[in-house]
Amino acid sequence: MTKVYIDGSAGTTGLRIRERLKARTDIELLTIPEEQRKDTKERSRRMNESDITFFCLPDEAALEAEGLVTNEKVRIIDTSTAHRTWPGWSYGFPELSEEHRRAVSVAGRVSVPGCHASGFNALVYPLAAGGILPADYPLVCYSVTGYSGGGKSMIAGYEAADREDELLSPRQYGVTQQHKHLKEMKAVCGLEREPVFAPIVADYYSGMVVSVPLYSHLLSGRQTPDSLREYFRHYYEGQQMIHVAKTVPSFIGANTMSGKDTMEILISGNEERVLLAARFDNLGKGASGAAIQCMNLMLGWEESTGLEL
After folding, report:
1. Is the separation of the CB atoms in 261 and 289 below 8 Å?
2. What pLDDT is recorded for position 34?
3. Of the listed 115, 141, 189, 294, which one is catalytic?
4. Is 121's pLDDT higher than 80?
């Protein structure tokens, strides 16, 4: 039986991982009494007893936690931003390429993509890899997410009985263009510059839509929504966790995939302007689901084991 420890199991990502794993008979969850949850010695002991340890921590805490792992056989899956572009860490998005999938499968250290970056990379990486989108394309990205992506404090604010009226409306943030996901968006897709990024949080718990608008004449070849839809369908053919929609509704609901661990790609527009969109759960394929998928691959198991498809 595989021993798993979740460091930071009280946060939204850690809780979802625990929820997905607790009913499985092939996994033994190592736990710490609540009063010892922040005890460094006890945390280190559980990490070094495990086969797989998940870091569900703030960035600085994840960097510190890596130093607590002294058993070289322990494999780590980090859900924070800390290691996403670090040498020696595999990027946990196996659908991007066979190289990504192989790297995750054999890795001792895997960094799970950010939620916004997951949608962006799922849309942009295939086009960059196929030579359709040039590395210097002036990209723009919009992303609408539920408030669970902001962690416990944001959840508490949105669910408070006396919350501010402003929370009833969508709120744009990251206005200084310094969002922490930008670094991986640029690096993973091999771009020359970071996109102009406009993330928005809205009054619902979970789910998100990441959108990338494109001008057809700036792409290689004669691209239309139909040609790009066919390209993406072929690119993600055979993938369990990502599928390409045949049609696009007039309204793309951001909470439609809530509770799921899969992602849907939607492509619309006209011959001049194309809109790419990725719809998924920020706590699913955008965090916990992706982390468990990586764990399954690292252990040689069916990648969708224990996930909601």
Report:
1. yes
2. 80
3. 115
4. yes
